[in-house]
Specification:
Helix content is about 20%, strand content about 40%. The protein has three domains: about 150 residues, ATPase, nucleotide binding domain (Nucleotidyltransferase, domain 5, 2-Layer Sandwich); about 90 residues, 2-Layer Sandwich (Nucleotidyltransferase, domain 5); about 110 residues, Substrate Binding Domain Of DNAk, Chain A, domain 1 (Sandwich), CATH 2.60.34.10. It is built from nine helices and 25 strands.
């Protein structure tokens, strides 16, 4: 890799296989990272091998090789991405520690001497992101020395969105279809854009999967029928095909049908490249600023507070609608002004509707007005729930801090008439 600073990385993390890409600014597109220089092998097993008695780790194909030796122990993807510690003969490791080892070893494929000094952003993409995985991945990157600004997360459908909308405008001028193959099963997704509002929103439509025959001629006809069923009622300008179980040796009529309707691209690195495009969008280009992808992980309500700043009334945003819940967090400090409660302002995604939510501070010490400083922390545990923690910091040496803590949750529910 020629780039040694400001590197943008896509990391597809799966239970069985993973892969990496980086953004090549000369080519203006993501480039998949081979597991061995000079090969077209981009996927590597999600597996670790540890040498007994030493903190020596290997990953992927290398791990499978060392795992055949008696002095190495294997840890598989389900354990790395799991919820329970893994007991090896010489030590027990938490999932966070295992993820740190796997992510750290995997990033060595980039050939960078200083990972944290060279990488601007690693965008991790997975099929789904339950809270335990979000917590463990954050802990892994933190232990590797990455700052919170140097990594982010998104699910595979959001990577589909960024991949599609990073192509030439003609590709996403209308709807974009996605066919995902898993051995003998195919599933369908479609990106649909609503241009009537501001910001413009894009959502994914899902169709039930279909099972395909092992007979290749029948398989082709079944795919034709499945594609026609899901595409005939829409208007498509682009089609993407990905996954195992598909190659260009057997589809004839089905591909001709798709090509008549739209531009068709096939690749097994769609999600990892979509993650890389997302890193580029977030960190540099901001070309999709007027659009919002309506992910299932999206926070649809903003949280803020009305405050006095240098004597002027101002609205201070704390959690912004339109961000994924695992990126939605904030911490501020302020002085209470003749109040014994906190008042939050919730607003809709389009900012047209607002409502207030109160958080009581029982047993708050009696002090003069403007003599209590509060540290406020907010974070989301899902797209629908925000957790709030308030801590009494007192007021310098005049009124010592009690460090009393109040906790509450704010439901991020849509307005009744939405």
């Amino acid at each position: 890799m020629n780039e040694v600073r400001n590197v943008l990385v896509g990391f597809e993390l799966g239970k069985e296989e993973s892969q990496l890409s980086y953004y090549n600014r000369n080519a203006q597109e993501p480039v998949s990272v081979p597991t061995k220089v000079g090969t077209n092998l981009f996927r590597f097993p999600t597996v670790l091998a540890k040498k007994r008695g030493r903190e020596e780790w290997h990953f992927g194909l290398e791990a499978e090789y060392f795992g055949t030796r008696d002095d190495f122990d294997l840890v598989w993807g389900e354990e790395i991405l799991g919820t329970e510690p893994v007991d090896l003969p010489d030590k027990s490791y938490t999932p966070t520690e295992l993820l740190a080892a796997f992510i750290g070893e995997s990033l060595r494929l980039l050939g960078l001497r200083d990972l944290t000094g060279s990488i601007s952003c690693v965008m991790v993409t997975m099929d789904s992101l339950p809270i335990h995985l979000v917590t463990n991945i954050r802990g892994a990157f933190d232990s590797l020395g990455f700052s919170h600004e140097q990594y982010s997360l998104q699910n595979s459908m959001e990577s589909f969105y960024y991949y599609a909308y990073s192509q030439k405008p003609g590709f996403w001028a209308r709807d974009v279809a996605l066919f995902i193959f898993e051995e003998d099963r195919v599933s369908f997704r479609a990106l649909k854009e609503d241009t009537t509002g501001k910001p413009q929103t894009v959502k994914v439509i899902t169709a039930p999967p279909a099972t395909l025959s092992e007979d290749l001629k029948i398989r082709d006809l079944q795919l034709l029928e499945y594609a026609n069923k899901n595409m005939s009622n829409g208007s498509f300008s682009g089609v993407l095909i990905t996954g195992t179980g598909f190659d260009m040796s057997w589809p004839e009529k089905s591909i001709r049908y798709m090509c008549r309707a739209a531009k068709v691209f096939y690749g097994d690195n769609l999600f990892v490249k979509g993650a890389c495009y997302a890193a580029y969008e977030h960190m540099e280009t901001h070309a999709l600023k007027g659009k919002i992808y309506m992910s299932e992980d999206l926070v649809r309500m903003s949280i803020g507070m009305d405050m006095l700043v240098k004597g002027k009334a101002m609205y201070i945003p704390l959690i912004n609608a339109g961000s994924n819940w695992f990126d939605a967090a904030n911490e501020i400090e302020f002085i209470l002004d003749d109040k014994r409660e906190l008042v939050f302002v919730l607003s809709s995604l389009d900012e047209k509707k607002r409502r207030k939510c109160m958080m009581d501070l029982p047993d708050l010490p009696d002090r003069p007005n403007r003599a209590t400083r509060i540290r406020l922390k907010l974070f989301c545990s899902s797209a629908d729930v925000c957790h709030v923690t308030a801590e009494d910091l007192g007021f310098g040496g005049f009124f010592p801090a009690t460090h009393k803590v109040w906790e509450d949750t704010i439901p991020l529910e849509a307005f009744d008439d939405e």
